[in-house]
Amino acid sequence: MNVIEAIIMAIVEGLTEFLPISSTGHMIIASAMMGINEEEFTKIFTVNVQFGAILSVVVLYWRRFFQSFEFYLKLFIAFIPSAIFGLLFIDIIDALLENVVVVAVMLLVGGFVLIFIDRLFNNPENELDQVNHKKAFTIGLFQCLAMIPGVSRSAATIIGGMTQKLSRKAAAEFSFFLAVPTMFAASGYKLLKDYKYITIQNIDTLLIGNVVAFIVAMLAIKFFISFLTKYGFKVFGYYRIALGLLLLILFMMGVDLEV
User: Fold this and answer.
1) Would the pLDDT of 205 be above 60?
2) Nearest to 114 by CA among 170, 155, 54
3) Where does the pLDDT of residue 242 fall: very low under 50, low under 70, confident under 90, or very high at 90 and above?
4) Residue 259 within any structural domain of the chain
5) What integer pLDDT is reported at residue 255 of this predicted model?
6) How confident is the model at residue 156 (pLDDT cuts 50, 70, 90)?
7) Which of 45, 79, 145, 248 has its Cβ near the most Cβ atoms within 10 Å?
């Protein structure tokens, strides 16, 4: 992976991490299209570039993020399910990460869900302070669905929040906050496991990627909250369906999409 490829991957990460369209799925597709998918450094870059995206949440919401112990307890409770499932099924998850067809199918399924989600959960304007421990844990269970590439962690947790009677905006913001411990744990685990693939020759590439992901993610979050409040999820649903169909058509035409 060279610097230009790293910047492209970081832009993809920053744009898609907090949108309900699957950042992992998009980075798998991007790396396959650039022909860098089989490099070990690409695999660790794909996970660890999330550090930049995490930082964007902390910077944008620093007044609300640094608050009471109760707030952190709710995030920890919501984080527990994905931590347990992640450790139990890490090998299966890694195998799924190598399959673009799985991404395509999940993009399709998630797209249809997003088209109808606003009708299913026409919630009152319940805000974050109405998230109790039980609701936090339930949202955390929804987050586990995102271990399947193409599902989207953002979509899963926002939908989980809406099932708990949160408004779209409040559900999206809780999803952003929950991303911090979740992505930090995933990135940290990957870094400890595969640190040997980060060398003096490529560490600058990883740092540049995180800086780009940080900047792009900040812009994406601001856009997403505004857009979601006004228009809901339909546009993202149509996009997911179009992309999923395109990938399946390419696969059936014999185009090599496998990672």
Assistant:
1) yes
2) 155
3) very high
4) no
5) 63
6) very high
7) 45
Name residues whose C-beta falls within 8 Å of residue 35's C-beta, 6 or more positions apart in sequence. Answer: none
Residue type, 101: V
Cα pseudo-dihedral 154, 157, 160, 164, rounded to 10: -110
The model's pTM: 0.84
For residue 228, being part of any structural domain is answered with yes
> Residue 108: its pLDDT value, please?
92
Residues 127-134: contacts with CB under 8 Å, at least 24 apart: 127/166, 127/167, 127/170, 128/166, 128/170, 128/173, 128/174, 130/165, 130/166, 130/170, 131/74, 131/161, 131/164, 131/166, 131/174, 132/74, 133/73, 133/74, 133/77
- Dist CA 50 CA 230 (whole Å): 27
Q: Encode pLDDT of 91-117 as tens digits.
A: 777 666 667 788 888 899 999 999 988
Q: What is the pLDDT of residue 259?
A: 47
Residue 66, pLDDT score: 81
Number of domains in the chain: 1
> For 60-99, how does the pLDDT look when each residue is reduced to its tens digit (9 = 90+)?
988 888 878 899 999 999 999 998 987 887 777 766 666 7
* 258 inside domain: no
128: containing domain: 3-252
